Amino acid sequence: MSSDPMAGNRFVVQYYETLTTSGVRLFLARHDALVVRLGGESGQWDVQEVSDGNLNLVFLVHGPAGSVCVKQSLPHVRVDPNWQMPLDRTEFEAAWLRRVAQIEPERVPVFLLFDSDMFVLVMECLDNFVTLRQAVGNGGDAVEPSRVIAEFVARTAFFSSFLARKLEDVMPDLSFFAKNTTLTRITFDLVLSDPFRPHCRNHWLKELDRDVAELQNDEAVLLAVAYLQQRFLASPQALLHGDLHSGSIMVRGDDVRVIDGEFSLYGPIGFDCGLYLAHLVLAWAAAPSAPRRAHIVDAIDIFWAEFRKAFLALWQAEVPGGDLCSRATFSVYPSLLRLEQEQYLDSVFSDMVGFAAAEIIRRIIGYAQVTDFDWLQTTSEKAERQRDALVFAANLLRKAPQSPEEVSARLRI
Amino acid sequence: MSSDPMAGNRFVVQYYETLTTSGVRLFLARHDALVVRLGGESGQWDVQEVSDGNLNLVFLVHGPAGSVCVKQSLPHVRVDPNWQMPLDRTEFEAAWLRRVAQIEPERVPVFLLFDSDMFVLVMECLDNFVTLRQAVGNGGDAVEPSRVIAEFVARTAFFSSFLARKLEDVMPDLSFFAKNTTLTRITFDLVLSDPFRPHCRNHWLKELDRDVAELQNDEAVLLAVAYLQQRFLASPQALLHGDLHSGSIMVRGDDVRVIDGEFSLYGPIGFDCGLYLAHLVLAWAAAPSAPRRAHIVDAIDIFWAEFRKAFLALWQAEVPGGDLCSRATFSVYPSLLRLEQEQYLDSVFSDMVGFAAAEIIRRIIGYAQVTDFDWLQTTSEKAERQRDALVFAANLLRKAPQSPEEVSARLRI
Ligand SMILES: Nc1ncnc2c1ncn2[C@@H]1O[C@H](COP(=O)(O)OP(=O)(O)OP(=O)(O)O)[C@@H](O)[C@H]1O
Ligand SMILES: Nc1ncnc2c1ncn2[C@@H]1O[C@H](COP(=O)(O)OP(=O)(O)OP(=O)(O)O)[C@@H](O)[C@H]1O
Ligand SMILES: [Mg+2]
Ligand SMILES: [Mg+2]
């Protein structure tokens, strides 16, 4: 047996217990609004555990009138009970959900309840949605969702940033999310550290041995990563989702929702952009045909173009009101405003490219990998595709592309 | 009469009252440790009000056995009772003092007490010290204090940064100091905004009218300032003093102390460096003779050289232990470490230069000006000297110097 899973937890765990399907029923029955939403008696509710992520328990509950999704943190990593972890991550997810709902209510599940004793978050159940990863993996459209996510990132970033808000409004949020150290640590270690050195959590196909050795000994790569580490920890431009891969996005037709904001933090806007971009690149590398690859490259082009357009449109609007926009409202200096915007977006672009590279790499050689390559029959096929992604990513770090066209040109080879 | 000075104060002001000399006596008498330190009876204590800053009340108290300094926030700006202000700034000063005392105990007054009801900070009284501004203005040495302050900034910055500490240790402090919004607002407005646009708080000698108009309409200057605003708000590299001018430094012989950390925040290290540099430049512009000017340029050279040396020495040390240093400890990559360090220090240097420029400008045309030029007899003499500083500063923003040698070359003309 491993040691007490609650050991080291800095929270009052007096009332905490891990939910089971019957525990979910009892929990929900205590909240009138949820009972009304579900309808009928608790005995009539259908409770399914669907946890498929690494960290938490997730239940979907259906009653005669409606449904809810129940998410609870565990005192350890779900897929590794020996890896202990504080419980407060649902609190940050709940806070993220409520803030983002004020900006993009149609792009997130409706927030219903957060219980700080049980570390339980209850939200709208997204019935008949699938993750974007599944949709794209099954040949679905990648372009329209990328357009939607681009606008989502632009809007949530802009409206939580110093561009749209006074420092008196930003700082309390920045201060709050700075406490999300458990999951910030995970990102720092798993995305920006471990993959770039020998570490027991790394693993990869043996066919990639040489690529990995090269990568981990390339000073240009390591210098770029050191810089990304600084950007990640010390560039709080906006409230980020923090884990915006295609498994954190659910789609049903043209309805696109972002879930799982437990990694949220104030950080560089290019981090969210970069994670999204990385998973498009992974889908590109795993795609079954040339036209399918081309389709995903289109999605990549659209993503940045749309992000840029949406972000600039918000910044251009008459009175954004934030501290970093005051001068912009002076219509006396239109050319200055243009220069400021280019400077800002150039830096978001270069962050995006760098973080995308790190994310691609860690999803191929790090602890938590992606399922995109699973459909391939042989390891040598898999390794070949993964090498495509790995080489592309390493080259982003070795020689940063200067324009979005350069990014897609490198993929259209 | 102005409105209620407590209006808008977000703190419990139930127990708060503004101290008078007799109030100071009663306050101190309630604290045994302070009574012991002062010695004798409270009636024997000499209490002098010495407030000469813009914001707070300061009393020096002497008893038969020892002395203390008592600092209290007012619910308004001391020199402008109509400008209301929350009381919590002493709390941040107390927090700064305690953190810095762990790193540089010999460079700050000893922390004695903080009373959160009265917003009173009690610390060691620096008997027979004068401010560095006075010392240098009176022809005293500028070189040795600059060496000391360079090391002070290097050490406090390094040890509070992600270079020396794990993110789990930095984030709680970052989170706490992010709440110092009142004084962060003051800096943002008075240093980085108002002077660069027409604003009623600005004022200057009429001889400088043309220079000010030019400055406020120069797009290169305004673009540089927009970037500095971003750096200031969203680059929490280390715990800064936040107001490190020569009036926040006290000297007695070779004993140098830093006081008045109420503006403390997590920010770009170059901000503290830049403020210090700015006041050397102001002293240079106001200096009575060519050899005196040369002496101050020497101090400027020494300041950056010493800062750089001290900072690198800390980073080079075997096990700094911070998240941004992990790779550095790998002795396998000495050339990588060197590149990382250059990249980091280049950015501190360019921040320093930019913030120095903004600070010089605001001290000549903004709300709170410096006394350095007061000894000059005629306004035209003053204006000429101030123009020297103003032009130097504007040129720093127009065309950033690429090396410390370039900075001093521009001053040695
Ligand atoms: N609101 C919802 N409605 C319907 N299904 C949901 C909802 N939220 C989550 N799910 C399902 O539960 C799964 C796990 O959710 P989620 O990604 O939030 O969990 P996690 O433990 O935080 O995972 P990760 O390892 O990605 O952090 C999702 O892939 C999805 O299938
Ligand atoms: N510990 C101390 N010992 C002796 N004198 C002190 C001490 N602290 C402050 N003083 C004196 O009080 C004066 C004002 O102190 P300080 O600068 O901290 O006040 P302030 O109101 O915050 O000013 P500012 O406008 O610079 O913010 C100093 O210039 C110095 O002369
Ligand atoms: Mg998750
Ligand atoms: Mg002060």
Question: Which characteristics define this entry?
Answer:
homodimer, 413 residues, alpha+beta, Phosphorylase Kinase, domain 1, Aminoglycoside 3'-phosphotransferase, Chain: A, domain 2, 2 domains, 5-stranded antiparallel β-sheet, 3-stranded antiparallel β-sheet, 14 helices, 12 strands, binds adenosine-5'-triphosphate, binds magnesium ion, transferase (chains A, B), S-methyl-5-thioribose kinase (chains A, B)
Shape of chain A: globular
CATH architecture label name of the largest domain in chain A = Alpha-Beta Complex
**CATH-defined superfamily of the largest domain in chain A:** Aminoglycoside phosphotransferase (APH), C-terminal lobe
Number of domains of chain A: 2
* Oligomeric state of the chains present here: homodimer
Structural category of chain A is alpha+beta
**Low-confidence spans of chain A:** none
- Average pLDDT of chain A, to the nearest integer? 94
Neighbour order of strands in the largest sheet of chain A: 1-2-3-7-6
- Tell me the name of the CATH class of the largest domain in chain A: Alpha Beta
Helicity of chain A, as a percent range: 40-55%
Count of helical regions of chain A: 14
Number of strands of chain A: 12
Biggest interface between chains: A-B, 42 and 41 residues
Measured distance between first and last alpha carbons of chain A? 52 Å
Question: What is the gyration radius of chain A calculated from CA atoms?
Answer: 22 Å
Order of helices and strands of chain A: HHEEEEEHEEEHHHHHHEEEEHHHHH
Biggest sheet descriptor of chain A:
5 strands, antiparallel
CATH topology of the largest domain in chain A, anyone?
Aminoglycoside 3'-phosphotransferase, Chain: A, domain 2
Hetero groups: adenosine-5'-triphosphate, magnesium ion
